[in-house]
Amino acid sequence: MQNCSQGVFLSSSHDLAEAYGASIDAAAEHRMSISNPSEICEKADVEFALCWRPELRAFDLYPNLKFVMAVGAGVDALLKHPGLPKHVQICRVRDPEQGQQMAAFAVHEILHVQRDFDTLSDQARNQVWSEIPLQSPSDVNVTILGSGSMGRCVAEACVAFGFNVCVAVRTPPADPLSGLRYQHGPQSIQAAMTDADFVVNVLPLTKDTADILNMRTLSQVRRGSWLVQIGRGEHLVEEDLMTLIESGHLRGASLDVFRKEPLPVGHSYWDHPSLRITPHIASSASAKAIASQLRQTVLEMQAGLPLSLAVDRTAGY
């Protein structure tokens, strides 16, 4: 008889059962079952958890957890969760469509600013017919911080639109993209940001990348440049960003991620004229992808195989 592993939904802020339960049930094929904590009688039977911002003591009741999976691409919250035992593996979803979504978001923000659509909208509203001079895409320097699955999709999209693209990486990529430049090594981020017109951050959050968008690095960019921040809120030193915007060194920023989410009502960001604010929607893994990859991971666990979607706790991704 085939194994059927029990899982649990754990979130402090979202109804994961409502969002993903039907897709997981459709993919389960009697190999897994997952429920809300209140529906599980034998906590010791739980072998895996699907999570989004779990409570501080969320894992205490489940002594036999083998792995936890985050419904988003980032696993930083699970990596630093004080209640998650060290022996429990952390897995992340790798949805190729999520990379495409993030690439579309990044290119949209670059084009919106580079083609000055705010001015065009104002002109249309005031019935003003006035052309705006166009800039050749090859004269626009776009720096991308990060070259994981998300960063690679963003880089491919920016190259396709003809921008002059530079990607900051820790080590030279095994499968480099054509049509762009790479900066690698300990000073790669600072080097890549030099003279950038746009900086797109898609770095994972690790001890080495926390606060990486600061006065020192952001000062490297060309005066009047723009930041597209779609990594993690903890990457950005907010005070430094605002200082550089007020001085005119930065034209502004598109911010999709924040240190505190939701962004509090009354926060100064909401009505700042140089900021474009979105509610962490640059990308989202589909329910179908989450269900499929959860089942894949459960089957690997049942077979005693290495979990192919597990992250390296030391590296942070």
Automatic annotation (TrEMBL):
<feature type="domain" description="D-isomer specific 2-hydroxyacid dehydrogenase NAD-binding">
    <location>
        <begin position="110"/>
        <end position="282"/>
    </location>
</feature>
<protein>
    <submittedName>
        <fullName>Putative hydroxyacid dehydrogenase</fullName>
    </submittedName>
</protein>
<dbReference type="Pfam" id="PF02826">
    <property type="entry name" value="2-Hacid_dh_C"/>
</dbReference>
<dbReference type="GO" id="GO:0051287">
    <property type="term" value="F:NAD binding"/>
</dbReference>
<dbReference type="GO" id="GO:0016491">
    <property type="term" value="F:oxidoreductase activity"/>
</dbReference>
<keyword id="KW-0560">Oxidoreductase</keyword>
<dbReference type="InterPro" id="IPR036291">
    <property type="entry name" value="NAD(P)-bd_dom_sf"/>
</dbReference>
<keyword id="KW-0520">NAD</keyword>
<dbReference type="InterPro" id="IPR006140">
    <property type="entry name" value="D-isomer_DH_NAD-bd"/>
</dbReference>
